[in-house]
Amino acid sequence: MGENIATRNQLQFHNSPAFDVSLDVQGGSKIVDEDGRLIRTGTLWTASSHIITAVIGSGVLSLTWAIAQLGWIAGPVVMVMFSFITYYTSTLLVSCYRDPVTGKRSCTYSDAVRSHLGKVQVKMCGFIQQLNLFGTTIGYTVTAAISMVAIKRSTCFHNSGGKDPCLTSSNPYMLAFGISEIILSQIPNFDKLSWLSIVAAFMSFTYSGIGLALGIAKVAENGKIKGSMSGMSIGVVTPAQKMWRTFQALGDIAFAFSYSIILIEIQDTVKSPPCETKTMKKATQLSLAVTSIFYILCGCMGYAAFGDLAPGNLLTDKGLSSPFWLIDIANAAIVIHLVGAYQVFAQPIFALVEKTAAKFFPDSQFITKDIKITIPRLGSYNLNLFSLVWRTLFVILTTVISMILPFFNNVVGFLGALGYWPLTVYFPVEMYIAQKKIPKWSMRWICLEILSFCVLAIALCAAGGSVTGVVHDLKVYRPFKTSN
């Protein structure tokens, strides 16, 4: 009864044809790999869909606003810079998937840090990773609710001819999103999320494509390209506001490229041969190339359409509003995408808590015992009461916090600042240095450390800008109130 609960969960759907994992051991088919865990079936395409699902999220909606703070020169340059930094450090990270001494696979990001940097660093990494994953689920809940409210208000405005102010609270929509996540959180692990990630990735292209197309149409309607070389000008905002907004924009862009937090977990679903590292480098290259092009096009076309007064959220915050039915489709796609993305980011938290609980309480029937439930035409499902209760409480907690702090841009910026440097840059760089035994003060070591330090400085500035924004919002916001 004290087995690894994550391992047990990986096996619990093997009798279900709905999840395509039915394998006959007696017939010679393998259901476990060399580590005694369910055999991995992930490919370049499933890994890419997971990455795209994680990358193209709420971050794309704030890029127009971010470029408006930076201007035509710095905006695109910063986006390209973050894209290259993310790709480079991601290749370092996937190279550290296996233990440098034993060759054992790392199931999680923390396992990789433990293998390369030791127990002290892994504690810091685990805390930052779980905090960032937790924060991201809150950000996704806020964003999904905002999009659902936008659909409601769009329909209301259309039906009333613009006469009704259409005051709408986001709280019921956050509750609806939370209920859907309680149900989906019973999916056991990443191996069972491929179908959800593929759907979510398709939704990403849908709303990004609509935003891009409508941005182009808006520019054509205006008959000119708006914006300036330096972004939001002094006079419209104070010098202090310009500085903090610029810092917050850096955090928004960093958040848009933050996915390394779950890269090792994604890599652990990839089958071998070929080598997992080769597959993941190709998946990273493909995914970042696609998402970066979308990001730059969406951000720049939105800025060209709205100029320095670009909205905080391209599809909801006084941004694109017609044709209303197409905007509704885009916002619906955002909601569907975030339903899947929430699970992609929540699963590592679920796995950690359940694994830890099974380790400390191996004889607890509540934690380790499964209840077999037969589902007609789908096979059987092993219900674990601890997983059911714990995952439900987690979703409830993130939903309540989202209802208290529904600040889109500032939450996005803070999450980007919080997680980008340590998880996307610092730990991959330090692990790579340890793995390759790069001599201290060598040219390569100096270049890697300079990269890490520069991104740290950017992250600190971004965090300052976002915190300042949250403080400003809290001065005027009243929780659980209807907003316009």
Can you describe what's shown?
This protein is an all-alpha fold. It has a single domain (5-476), classed as Amino acid/polyamine transporter I (Up-down Bundle). Helices cover 67% and strands 2% of the residues. It has a two-stranded antiparallel sheet. Strand 1 (370-375) and strand 2 (379-384) form a beta hairpin. The longest helix has 42 residues, at 119-160. It is globular.
Structure summary:
Helices cover about 65% and strands about 0% of the residues.
> What is the global morphology?
globular
Helical amount among residues, as a percent range? 55-70%
| Physical arrangement of strands within the biggest beta sheet | 1-2
Examine the coordinates and then state which fold CATH places here, giving the name of the CATH topology.
Amino acid/polyamine transporter I
Question: What proportion strand?
Answer: under 5%
SSE sequence, one letter per element: HHHHHHHHHHHHEEHHH
CATH class reads: Mainly Alpha
CATH architecture: Up-down Bundle
Number of helices: 15
Major sheet details:
2 strands, antiparallel
Stretches with pLDDT under 50, minimum 5 residues: 1-29
Number of domains: 1
Indicate the structural class. mainly alpha
Can you give the mean pLDDT? 77
